[in-house]
Specification:
Blueprint lengths: L4 E5 L24 H10 L3 E5 L7 H10 L6 E3 L44
Parallel strand pairs: 1-2, 2-3
Length: 121
């Protein structure tokens, strides 16, 4: 199986949710089992792309927060909209299985309540 690309939001998923205006005056709170799972995905050869609605002017601050908390990633996409996110991908007619999968987590719970074994990364 080929390696996967994993898109992961930052606030409410990796770090406990905070309002934009508090980012520089408060410390991020790393959510349970996030660092370990992201690290494992990368060790397994998957690409991790972090996404966030944080504005581009917080790029350096965001990189620092992620680094200080040991969050490894391959790419960072900032300034996306706060509304629903859709992943659209083609399906290979010669290979079974869906090629675009969405996973919704409860805000601020991290990865502690997710059974990743049900997903084919």
């Amino acid at each position: 199986m080929k390696n996967s690309t994993i898109f992961c939001d930052i606030d409410g998923t990796i770090f406990k949710y905070r309002k934009f205006e508090t980012y520089q005056s408060t410390q991020p709170e790393l959510l349970p089992k996030v660092r370990e799972q992201i690290s494992q995905w990368r060790k397994d050869g998957h690409m991790v792309i972090l996404t966030t609605a944080r504005p581009e002017n917080l790029f350096s601050h965001t990189i620092k927060e992620l680094s200080n908390n040991g969050i490894e990633f391959d790419k960072l996409i900032m300034g996306i909209e706060r509304g629903p996110r859709y992943l659209i991908n083609d399906m290979d007619p010669n290979k079974p299985g869906e090629r675009a999968i969405g996973i919704n987590l409860n805000r601020d719970e991290g990865f502690s309540n997710v059974d990743w074994s049900g997903y084919e990364f």
